[in-house]
Amino acid sequence: APASTQKIITSVTAFELLGKEYRYFTEIGYAGESIYFKPSGDPTFGSFRFASTRPEKIFNDFKDSLAKAGIKAINDQFSIEDYPVFDDQNIPDGWIMQDIGNYYGAGSSKINWKENQYDLYFNSANRAIDYWRVTVIRDSLYKIPVDSFIHRVTAGEEGSGDNAYIYPPMEGPNYLVKGTIPPNQKNFKISGAVINPENYFINDFREFLFKEGLLKGDIKKKYDVKTSLRDMYRHIAWHSSPTLDSIIYWFNKKSINLYGEALIKTFALEKLKYASTDFGVTILRNFWKEKGLNSNELNMVDGSGLSPLNRVTTHAQVEILKYAKAKDWYSYFYNSLPEYNGMKIKSGTIRGVKGFCGYHTAKGGKEYIFSFLVNNYNGSASALVNKMYKVLDQLK
Predict the structure, then answer these.
(1) Could you point out which of 8, 79, 168, 287 has its C-alpha 20 to 30 Å from the C-alpha of 299?
(2) CB 138 within 8 A of CB 114
C-alpha cells in the first residue's frame, strides 16, 4: 500500500494526459428566470489557496458579469447541468468510515466548493470537555446545526493534538464525533468533509446575492440544488481555475486528497465525457501499460492513495519518477515535492503504512531516484521514520 506516495503517479499522469497549462472552467448562464451552472469538477473552486479562487473573488466577478449582461435581480432558482456526466459516487471504493467524514476524506463532485470542508470548534477543560460549539466556515450560510452532531469527544493528554474523528450519518440525520483533543483549549478546530458541495456552493452564492440586493426570495430557507439537462441558455461568464502546474504544486505540497480524486475523474471526463473514478483509474493504468509498465504493478482504486486497498510496486513508482525527469514540465513536478530529511520526497501515511519516494543528489553529484514503502510495521510511527531516514542517509 503506497498511501499518499501514490500522488506522484496521479501527478505525472496528469501532466502527460492534461498538460501543465490545463484549466478547469465553470460556466454561469441564465435560462428563463434561473441561474444556470455548467460544472467541470474543478477542485480549486472556492479554495483559499489562490487569489483567483477565493469565494469573494468568484462572487464579485459573477456579479460584475451579471451587471454587464443587464441582469439586475435574480429569482431564487438555480440549477446545475447534467452534461458532461459526473458519476454520482463522490467517494471512491475502499475508503474507510474513519476517513470519509473528515476533511482529508472529502470526495470529488461536479462542483467542489472551498475544498469541500467545514469546521467544528471545541472548548475543552482539564481532561473533560465542559463546553463545545459547532460552526461551519464562518462566512457560509450552509451551516450544520449543533444538534446534528452526537458528541463523544473528550480531553486527552497534554500535547496530544487532534485525535477527533467525524463520522457521517449512516441512519438518520446525525453525525458522530469521537476521539480526543488536548485539554485546556479554546476554539480548537477540527475539519470535516461536506457531503453535498453543490448545495454548499449554491447557498453561499445565494447569501452573497442577497447581501448585494440582487436575490428575490427567502434567504432563510436552505436551497436544495437541482440538476438538469438544458440545451438553451444565455452564457454570462466563465470562471477559470489556476493552471495544472499550480494545482499539482498544492496537491503534493499539502497532500490534498480532493485534488487527486478530481484529477482521476478528469482523465475520464476528457477522454470519455463521463467523470468516474473507475474509468479514470483504467485510463491511467492503460497509459502506463503503453509506456511499458506491467499494469499489475498499479492496482489502484483512487487518485490520492487514501484507500488501503491500493497496491503499487516500488519499481513502478521509480519508473514513473524516471519518466518524469525527462519531460519539459519536470521542474514544476519537482518543485511540488516537499522536503524531508534534506531530500525532495513525497511522503505517505495511513494506518500501518509509511512511504517516501522522490529524488536526491548526493554530495558527489550522483543522482538517485527511490521509492521506499513499509507496510504493517511495529512500534511508533516516529521510530519507524527515524529508521527509514537512516537508510535514506546512505544516499547522501
Answers:
(1) 168
(2) no
A 10 A CB-CB count for 367 gives 10
**Cα 215 from chain centre:** 31
**Pick from 165, 185, 163: nearest CA to 176:** 165
Q: How confident is the model at residue 130 (pLDDT cuts 50, 70, 90)?
A: low
pLDDT tier at 34 (50, 70, 90 boundaries)?
confident
Whether the CB-CB separation of 241 and 44 falls below 8 Å is answered with: yes
Q: Which of 238, 295, 237, 285 is nearest to 264 (CA)?
A: 285
- The pair phi, psi for residue 150, each rounded to 5°, is -85, 115
pLDDT at 67 over 50: yes
Query: What does the DSSP 8-state code read for residue 345?
Result: E
Residue 167 identity: Y
Q: What is the pLDDT of residue 140?
A: 44
Q: Rounded CA gap, 67 and 57, in Å?
A: 15
Considering 34-38, 71-75, 189-193, 254-258, the range whose residues carry the highest mean pLDDT is 254-258
Which comes out higher in pLDDT, residue 42 or 79?
42
Mean pLDDT, the chain, rounded, equals: 91
- Partners of 211 in beta bridges: none
Q: Give which of 35, 190, 183, 36 is closest to 103, Cα–Cα.
A: 190
- What value, to the nearest 5°, has the Cα angle with vertex 269 and ends 8 and 277? 55
140-146, Cβ contacts within 8 angstroms, sequence gap of 24 or more: 140/114, 140/200, 140/203, 140/204, 140/207, 141/203, 141/204, 141/206, 141/207, 141/219, 141/222, 142/194, 142/199, 142/200, 142/203, 142/204, 142/222, 144/118, 144/175
The average pLDDT across 52-60 equals: 97
Q: Residue 56 is which amino acid?
A: E
Angstrom distance (rounded) from CA 46 to CA 89? 21
DSSP symbols for 228-273: E--S--EEEEEEEPPPHHHHHHHHHHTT-HHHHHHHHHHHHHHHHS
Q: How far apart are CA 368 and CA 298, in angstroms?
A: 22
Q: What is the C-alpha to C-alpha distance for residues 307 and 305, in angstroms, rounded to an integer?
A: 6
Alpha-carbon span 39 to 390, nearest angstrom: 47
> pTM for this one?
0.94
